[in-house]
Amino acid sequence: MKELFVPYQESLELKELEFDEDCIATYEEGDFDFNYDGDLVKNSECPLEFCTAPLFSQIFKWFRNKHNLDSFCRALEISGKSYWKISKLYDDGNVKGYSGFKDNYEKAELGCIRELIEILKSKKNENNI
């Protein structure tokens, strides 16, 4: 079940990027295993040393709905390789990026999340200049 959750480092970065949606699990600072107690919790409700552990599907939806960044991952049956694509919704349809082929779907999914985080960090830095 752990593979359904965004890893600790990326979850921490998402907290810094103001991800504040209900999650069913948390990470404690420096602890790479998530804690599940069955309650819904948001980052704004967590003690400082905790961050939420969102599901991958939750993060893709958050980027799509809150930041207009649409993305998908695809697995190719023939080769067993996977890739991701990111585009901005509601504009001229420009693609923000493609990945090269990854060894498996999980690596493509994590790579896509990392790229979405970097896009949002860059946007945030541009707005603070």
Descriptive overview:
By secondary structure, this protein is α+β, with helices and mostly antiparallel strands. The chain has 3 helices and 6 strands. A 3-stranded antiparallel beta sheet has the order 2-1-3. Strand 1 (23-28) and strand 2 form a beta hairpin.
Summarize the structure.
This protein is α+β, with helices and mostly antiparallel strands and 129 residues long. It contains 3 helices and 6 strands; from the N terminus they run H-E-E-E-H-E-E-E-H. A 3-stranded antiparallel beta sheet has the order 2-1-3. Strands 4-5-6 form a 3-stranded antiparallel beta sheet.
Provide keyphrases for this structure:
129 residues; alpha+beta; three-stranded antiparallel sheet; 3 helices; 26% strand; globular
Task: Give the secondary structure arrangement, pairings included.
Elements: H1 8-16, E1 23-28, E2 35-41, E3 50-52, H2 56-67, E4 69-75, E5 82-88, E6 95-98, H3 105-128
Antiparallel strand pairs: 1-2, 1-3, 4-5, 5-6
Tell me the strand percentage band: 25-35%
What's the end-to-end separation, in Å?
A: 41 Å
Strand order of the largest sheet: 2-1-3
Structural class by helix and strand composition: alpha+beta
Gross geometry: globular
Mean pLDDT over the residues: 86
Rg over CA atoms: 15 Å
Order of helices and strands: HEEEHEEEH
Number of helical regions: 3
Q: How much helix, percentage-wise, in residues?
A: 25-40%
Low-confidence stretches: none
Number of strands: 6
Q: Please describe the biggest sheet, giving its number of strands, its sense, and whether it closes into a barrel.
A: 3 strands, antiparallel
